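User: Could you check the structure of this?
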Amino acid sequence: MRCSRRALDCVFTRLVPVALGVLLGGCSSVGYYGQLAEGQWQLLRARQPLDRVIEDPSTSLELRQRLLFAEKARAFASAQLRLPDNGSYRVYADLGRPYVVWNVFATPELSLQPVTHCFPIAGCVAYRGYYRQGAARGAAALMREEGLDVYVGGVEAYSTLGWFDDPILSTMAGWGDERLATVIFHELAHQRFYVQDDTEFNESFASFVEQEGTRQWRAARGLAAIEDAGARQREQFTRLVLASRERLQAIYAGPLDEPGKRVAKQAEFERLRREYCQVRDRDWAGDRRFDAWIYAPLNNAKLLPFGLYDQWVPAFSQLFKEVGGDWARFYQRVEALGRIPIEQRKLALGRLMARP
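Assistant: Sure, the predicted structure tokens are below.
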């Protein structure tokens, strides 16, 4: 969904939760899809045209200015980035809560293989989304009883992939102007093209559109590219987590018995914390923005979202360069990649990344 990297909870912003479903057999399926349908319906009912919110005397000056900026970014997205020209992000919805949904991730205790869930629209994804925090926590508790590693993350925004006119949400209203614009670019990219069952491809594509779109958006306003120290920190932090995940993979695939793997797992999490402290104190002047995440309980499921957003960004950057920065030709090439089998697609992306 996702996204220039942002605060840690934004890792989840780009993991698109399914907001629709076909009621399947079984009571649990009916209950789950029922809450999805109800939550999405409530969100749709809360939408108002941006013009109406902007002109409402009760709208705060801060929100009014933010929505005026969003209108300009939204027009730029369609006119210059060739993103869908529809009703998405031309409406606003006040939800009255800090997150729009809560995603539940799960893995086996000694594996980083996610428990996946398959849906009619988005295909198979590594989480389940809930519109009520209590429902998410209840589902997480049941999974823990099964011996799974579980993590619940709040989501501030998501895309319905063009099935509905997605609103700017009150959960997004506190963001800075630039971040709001980049989210609009990112989520519209998902509407422009989306491949079922390939999260890395989808998120890397949308992240490239976001990054290049933001560069062009700033240039169009006569602004220089921003040097984002926070983005560098997030990239460093992500690298730390991905390296830890690689070591965990080796532990779980190795010769230790299960008790030995459990001990090694906890030792790896302590190593991750130590390495984080070293980088934080050496390179970030003690900036503690990730302390809450790193010192909260760690498990396999908590590591799942990392690396989804930028794995193939250099490949899409190379592709954009090869078509001379022509957005229409770029999207044609992206769609061609999306039509081939996933293993061939990964090889093609790898070749793009290897080119000078």
